[in-house]
Write a structure and sequence with these properties.
mainly beta; three-stranded antiparallel beta sheet; 5 strands; about 30% strand
Length: about 70
């Protein structure tokens, strides 16, 4: 537990990372490093840079990612 808040935070920007994703039409389950996770119809199934799969809520995905065109 932090008892004293640090004063001098630096500013950082997250490095751009390309992922693969597909919007799912039905509810789904996917085995991840954290266990079996579920997604709802309309959520996205993402494939990370190391091939790992995980679900992402539709709203969060659409606020966080934009499509990269070849």
């Amino acid at each position: 537990m932090i008892t004293k808040m640090p004063r001098n935070f630096n500013v950082y920007r997250k490095k751009p990372v390309k992922i693969k994703a597909v919007q799912m039409e039905e509810e789904f389950e996917v085995k991840t490093l954290e266990g079996v996770l579920r997604g709802k119809a309309g959520d996205y199934l993402l494939q990370g840079v190391k091939g790992e799969l995980y679900p992402c809520d539709k709203g969060i995905f659409e606020e966080t990612y934009e499509e990269v065109f070849k």
